[in-house]
Amino acid sequence: MTTGDEQQLYALYAQINEWAKLNRERLIELVSTLVEHDTVNQIVTGQEEQCQHVLSGILTEMGLSTELYNPEEVTGFHEHPAYYPGKDYSNRPNVVAVWKGTGGGKSLLFSSHIDTAVIAPGWEHDPFTPRLEDNRLYGLGSFDMKSGLSASVMAVRCLMELGIKLKGDITIESVVDEEFGGANGTVAGRAKGTAADVAIIPEPTNLAIYPASRGGALWRITFRGTTGLSFSGESIENPANAAAKFIVFLERFEQSRAGIPGPAPWYKDQQDPLPVIVTRLEAGDMQAALCDVGPVECHVDIWVECYPGVTEEDLKSQLLQGYEDFCGKTFADGLSRPEFQRMVRFLPGSAVAEDLPLIPLLASRIESVTGHAAEIMGAPFACDSFVFNQYSSTPAVILGPSGGNAHAPDEFVDLDSLVELVCIYAGIIVRWCGVEDSHAGNCQL
Known about the structure:
Blueprint: H1 3-22, H2 24-35, H3 49-62, E1 65-69, E2 94-99, E3 108-113, E4 131-133, E5 136-138, H4 142-161, E6 170-175, H5 184-192, E7 198-201, E8 209-224, H6 239-256, E9 276-283, E10 297-306, H7 312-327, E11 339-342, E12 350-351, H8 358-370, E13 376-382, H9 385-391, E14 396-398, E15 403-404, E16 412-414, H10 415-433
Helix pairs in contact: 1-10, 2-4, 4-10, 6-7, 8-10
């Protein structure tokens, strides 16, 4: 790029930044519109349809080539190696919209999920009524991830209204069923053939760049025993005791992984423990007025995270071996063996190549918009990026807004960061895809 091209590009960046500031209220209105729709993932079923129709209408009105489609209608969906059975996609369409370039540029895909986690106990206000307070927009899905989706839409709208003609194609994708280890909506997009040279997933990152994501497993661990009262010398084994010991082990297991660097380059400087969370305990007859004996089964539901490169069997083996070591006794010697039942799909960790050209471009744009050096690290969560990075030719990087309380009461997005995100997205579209517009000097990567 020549010096003249750079000057014209920075002038275009200034126009983008000014547009984003002037259109802040339109951005807030879009996020609010999406938050008002209940798109809670109901594990097997969902009700994303109405919100997806609204979004589709907005994208069509902008002039994008837009399609609503049901994952079940996609040829090869069930045969895709990442397909996970047992879900119902009745009235749960994906949305895909394309802004075609003039040709000769690189393509970029924004992939977001429209479903949300469940309504956690403790919300102070209606989670589907957006509330503005202290530069924050509160509402279920505001942070995870209807704001990131809205930022991608507004970035495209920005460039359209500025009269920019892109050389490469831009695709905006809104998928169903990502929460709770879903990812089949994302799988359907890949089976359909929706692709690009690179993808950005607008999950919440606090404006950091995540070129990698963790994996994780949600298991139900079952311990079995015997019950009754030993009036005649019966041998009673209470599975709750074994479960309690296992829970103590899980805490130690989590602590043992702290301070150990993850795989380079994206996790080598992270020393926080990988989460091991007991999500539910169940034992005894919960319908009985009281219980005077121990249960015959005790269930412990756990969420365990891992780094890229660790398989489900690897993670399970680590837990079993660690439990034997913790107890100083083997299963062969009579240690009560935990039974593992998969509750949702195993989410493998994934990563893009260290030299992916999009990463330094994003870092430069973030620094230009925020005035701070971009943070680049592995994501502290699992998500559907593995579908791109392990099952497609489109590498996916995660970048989204700042906020808080994801999957918790009073979820919110920081609105200043969201405006900055529009500037970042619009700028990276211009830089990555290239433009034909004269005031950008035909710039391209």
